[in-house]
Write a structure and sequence with these properties.
Blueprint lengths: L1 H7 L6 H15 L4 H9 L7 E3 L2 E3 L3 E3 L10 H6 L5 E6 L12 E4 L4 E4 L8 H14 L5 E5 L10 H12 L5 E5 L14 H15 L4 E5 L5 H13 L4 E4 L13 H7 L3 E4 L3 H14 L5 E5 L5 H9 L4 E4 L1 H6 L3 H11 L1
Parallel strand pairs: 3-13, 4-7, 7-8, 8-9, 9-10, 10-12, 12-13
Antiparallel strand pairs: 1-2, 5-6, 6-11
Helix pairs in contact: 6-7, 7-8, 8-10, 11-13
Pathway: Pyrimidine metabolism; UMP biosynthesis via de novo pathway; orotate from (S)-dihydroorotate (quinone route): step 1/1
EC number: 1.3.5.2
Enzyme class: oxidoreductase
Amino acid sequence: MYPLLFRAVLSRFDPEFAHHAGMAVVRVLGVQPFARATRALTAPDPSLRVEALGLTFPSPFGVAAGFDKNAVGVRGLAALGFGHVEVGTITAIPQEGNPKPRLFRLVEDRAVINRMGFNNKGADAAARKLARLRRGAPDTVIGVNIGKSRVVDVENATEDYVASAVRLAPLADYLAINVSSPNTPGLRGLQAVETLAPLLRAVRTAAGKTPLLVKIAPDLPDEEITAIAQLAVAEGLDGIISHNTTISRDGLLSDDAVVEAAGAGGLSGAPLKERSLQVLRVVRAAVPEDFCVIAVGGVETASDVQERLDAGATLVQGYTAFLYRGPFWGREINRGLLGR
């Protein structure tokens, strides 16, 4: 039913407008009595619980960063059955992001291209939201994804990340360092081991006891992915998020003119499935068995989630398929996992 509704009606709306409209509905579902009624339909079975990062996740399947940039929909997303919500990317300094339009659907590929540019209200505003969430939704697992403020030079990135970590780590269940978005100039250069090592070290100190992960790009050569994974272990991080959006446009079904019109940005959705599994296996082979690996990319069904768990993922995240499969996607995944 929802896929038909999407193609007939929802796909006609501007993607960013549609996202904000959808988020408004999600926020309503997080308010009583709607939250209670929604949870009655969507709550994950207790057998799906996962112990990781010193936390209990109600389900291995959660929402990736990018969906809830300002921590406004956490209660609603949790009510919809997601095992955790990673908010952000949040920067120390508020920023508008890139000029619009900056979000584009590739319907034939069940994919999205975005060049949002870390649009968010900043670490101070996020901290106030998270503090209220901690009082009202203490059992929801909330990850916080932090990135570099656009106005800060790459040479000063470490101090910028530390500022966000100091403000947000005490309110997060885990903290994720985003050095892999293609939409902030110079950001992906921070993935070079010689640059990344001091950044990880500084943020690790600032994060204190909060579990710390780093989010990598899928476009790196496998040997560089291995090197980053080994560095994360050596620097005392708690996990890796594998992975961000891709700048590749290989193998798309959409018309070339549609893809070209969308322009630059990170591609997410179904086309990432194969590379996502490849990167996951490279990361898993480079880290200890108890090291947390969160798999992201190309996840649409319970079968996709199970495939990643079988390949060594500790947890799995999704985002883009929410657009194509509808609000009960989390429930669909959880019920499918239970059936397996």
